[in-house]
What does this fold into?
Amino acid sequence: MKILKQKQVLAVACHEIKGQLSSFTYWTIILWPLLIAAIFERSGNIHLDLSTSNYLNLNLFWGNFLPIFIFMVSLSYVSIMANSVAADKTSKISEMLLAMVDAKEQLIGKISATYCLMLLHMTIYTGLIYIYERVTHGFIVQTIIKNTSPVFFVYIVLDAAVALFMALVWVTEIASYVTDESQVAVAVIPVMLLIGTGTMVAFLFNAPHYFDAGISVMRVYANVVLAFPPIGSLLMPTLLANQNVSYVEAYLNIVIQLVIIAWLLKQSIRQYRFGLLSSKKANPFLSVLVHENTGNLKENKR
Amino acid sequence: MIELQHVSKRFGNFNAVSDLSFSLHGGQILSLIGQNGAGKSTTFHMILDFIKPDSGKILWSGKPLTPDAITDMPEERGLYPKETIKSQLLYFAALHGMKKAEAIILLDDWMKRFNVVGKSTDKIESLSKGNAQKVQLIACLMFKPQLLILDEPFSGLDPVNSELLIKAILAAKQQGTMVIFSTHNMDNVQKLSDYIVMLKHGQTVLKGTPTEIYRQFGRLRLDIEGYQNVERLKRIQGVRNVTLMANGVHLELNNEQCGRVIFAEVTKNGYVPVFNQHYPDLEAIFKYEVHKKAYARL
It folds into this structure.
């Protein structure tokens, strides 16, 4: 039985990956940052002098870069996930699928597929960066990674993975109530609002010496607030980069976030199963946003 | 064997299913009939373990239910429109743990059996509604489930394709598959069912084999051809209603016994080509149960 369930997770994941690899959306997600980077590279005339970079400066770079990176990756993959769940729902295949494979396996399969797609995405970028640096003899990215502390680097990889996991779990739950493909954006908005807010606050936290005044009170407060995923994933790298929190706190934060996510995942699976079967009820977020949209439309018509 | 023991389900104040019990063995077909909202889909969802009953048990060969051996074709059904028939069914095969090579052979076989127009590499969106529905049926039948649940399987099918589906269901029955289906087409219930359960507002109002159900109502309908003396028939005690037809008369009786008196009367002058005292058909029984208060008798 257990093997069959693992096979089902694998089957769902393979189906998702196959579908995305043949879709225009996935390749667009990979291409557009490359285009922007190419434009900057051609016209921006950016020079990053790493010869004087010290450990703290590099960490500050990560502290600024990681929230943006998490935001961009979440935006891309949360949309992919929302579309995938909405496609199941709107093509009316959900009930048939639920009879074959439980919501738990479906959800884990879809999330696994998203991580594989992101891994492929990053592998492509790494390859392109490697080629680019070979050609231009720039070696900026290689230098940044070489000079980054391995403990910090492992942390930021784990942190990004946890943040994305939370975003995916949440968007799946909301998207399972979608009854029309036009509502996909409405499913993505609440998740991205939270991640966007976290990103903005991360920038504010990255302002130097924010924690200097009353650090002990602030630290207790921060450790409680940051336990809630994905707020911790977004803010912690900045705090760690600024050396406002220790590695013990940062890694402990990831563990606590994972415990909370495991609990949320359990709730999410229940909601996902219910959402897939329901064509009448809406998720509270979705109903509020759709209702507001409809209300606005009615107002406009008047 | 699947067994439902006093299963009930409420949604808030709404009683979706109340005290439902039945059992079904391998190679038997049960039809679950009732109006929209009677509790058929809720029953299917409980059997599929999508929702838990509030009370009662659903047992699978005497043990708690394991829905792995069940396939379901829901009332609201669809497929991924952008995918091909082959990729769609290979995905389902993978979910059932079936090997790809075996699935491809089975798919070709089932496509021929169901006369699906087109190739397995055609996209679902290019198929007609009927053909898409056949593909959905193939997705349910090709994995040889122990229990097959079909919610309104005949809706949207033309008479030719309905016949194909009936044959496929009977073939599955012969292979030992238990089938539970719901439909509003009483002809198909009559053709297929070993056992009938009728629900009304979640309550079981009829239950049994077709013969048992017919017997509850008795042979209270009579068709006679070659005899048209309506006035004479009306005077016979036990005759409730007489309708003059093109070739004869149709009678509704208060009791079965008066059929003998009528037979003696109409054959007094010799031969009548048709004298058929029969049970009400399932459609009439269905309508009677739905509008019980309005109908004094059948």
About this structure: The two ends of chain B are 35 Å apart (CA to CA).
